[in-house]
Amino acid sequence: MKKKQTVKIQLKQTFPLTIKRLGINGEGVGYFKKQVVFVPGALPGEEVVVEATKVHPKFAEGKIKKIRKKSAYRVQPPCPVYEECGGCQLQHLRYDQQLKEKRDIVIQSLERHTKLKVDALEIRETIGMEDPWNYRNKSQFQVGNRDGQVLAGLYGINSHKLINIQQCAVQHPLTNKATEAVKRILQELNISIYNEKTRKGIVRTIVARVGIQTGELQIVLITSQKELPKKNILVEKIKTHVPEVKSIVQNVNGQKTSLIFGDESVTLEGNDFIQETLGDLQFELSARTFFQLNPEQTIRLYNEVKDSAGLTGAEKVVDAYCGVGTIGLWVADKAGEIRGMDVIRESIEDAKKNAARHGIKHAKYEVGKAEEVMPKWVKEGWKPDVVIVDPPRTGLDQQLLKTILQVKPKKVVYVSCNPSTLAKDIAVLLPKYKVEFMQPVDMFPQTAHVECVALMSRVEK
After folding, report:
1. What is the CA radius of gyration of the chain?
2. Is 263 labelled as part of a ligand binding site?
3. If one looks up domain 107-129+294-458 in CATH, what number appears?
4. 18-48 per-position pLDDT tens digit
5. According to the annotation, is 108 in a ligand binding site?
6. What residues are annotated to the active site?
7. One fold for 107-129+294-458 and 138-286
8. Chain segment 305-354, per-residue pLDDT in tens
């Protein structure tokens, strides 16, 4: 009988460590006495002295006390609050090396969760950005008040301390400008700021979103109640200081919750939405509409999906987890028919509007779970040739995986934002499908996030 491995590392113990690779959250991974140790901020190839900060039965976490041997790819992060903020994890790693490490994170996930011969797979180089800064089209910054000073930013790593962010290095300059202006105006007008502890005060969050192609800007103020004092002066001042603004919206969220948005939105000025274009497609983005945060890379991602699907104009295509229909509409010109489903009713309404706006008549959208809707279509005699899935981080529902194995489309194009769940889902599909290739895409430079398109084709028996 195997003896249970006992942890040899003690809390606050310091020890030397060689970092072997990057973990899925961007932390350095090394082994001390065969025990795995995760060290935020450490890079592959570095020799560090670490202090154990947490000890778990199967692994330990540590912090760097000293770097004895530095990685050749270590760089100075440009962001002044990088260490505290935690919004980015990899600013201290040179960008070309970030792309290599992201490909490696995909490989590690496959090695851990599948029995595939990873060396024999076609895992392509990560598609990066020419300029990996200022790419995010939307910011959601919490508002706070410290010593009479209005702050806006994110909560620090593992803490509830609000980090004031003035110029976020990965946000589009217009969202930075808008947030700073609103912060100043709230201060000037002495409008009360929500306090999470006492649950008193009004303004909770400033959301800014820009149409990167159109230059249109939307500002959403999330408030704890419907009454917003000095509302008219506030709106006028925002218009003066941020002339690019096309839409100012108030969203009411009085709940004790970590969710940003409440159910009620009121347009205070301008349109209910801003316009954005992706390639030849136009979209109306209202305050709560989901839209990809990096449109430049989204186009590259969707082109990979389109190439992978290899459509000839005749295929029946399912766009599962379709949201507002973006992926399906992107491939529609090459498909015989598109059918999409999503559990969010507003998204399906938007998908129908988007299809109509672009004159796409061969797209049909339904509210419901993919694992329930797809079998119903098959029963009605409509069987897909290609299934495109773009699930949340948790991966595909087990029932949907079973459905795919029963329906047996010729191809599955899997768009993943989490390499671990991608690998686990591939393992389930493997008996009946083979992996043709995997293409990582860097949607969020400077962070540990990895997006990946995997093409799987049915194994013909």
Report:
1. 24
2. no
3. 3.40.50.150
4. 999 999 999 999 999 999 999 999 999 999 9
5. no
6. 417
7. no
8. 999 999 999 999 999 999 999 999 999 999 999 999 999 998 999 999 99
